[in-house]
Fold this sequence. Notes:
This protein is mainly β and 123 residues long.
Amino acid sequence: QMQLVESGGGLVQAGGSLRLSCAASGRTFSSYTMCWFCQAPGKERDVVVAILGSGGITTYADSVKGRFTISRDNAKNTLYLQMNSLKPEDTAVYYCAARIGGSSRYDSTWNYWGQGTQVTVSS
Length: 123
């Protein structure tokens, strides 16, 4: 079992930055592929970016390339998402997720989820 707890969301003006964190329980964090998803109001949950235990990164959302950076600290059992140059369209609830094995763009294939953290970007 793994428990995930996100933090770091909030209200920020367009052009600003936020750093999301996802704290994971358990002793095998480095074995898990981790991912950030987002769900905007009235929309389905979408994959954003994923990172393997070894550090390999897959960015699924073209809209965040060059602005968002995923990272992980396996010693601290923590996943991060550095969000720069935020835009109003980035407004969403951001979720972290974990799975054993490679990355996947399909949320049904991720085994563990956090409760989400709200990011609101004002214009």
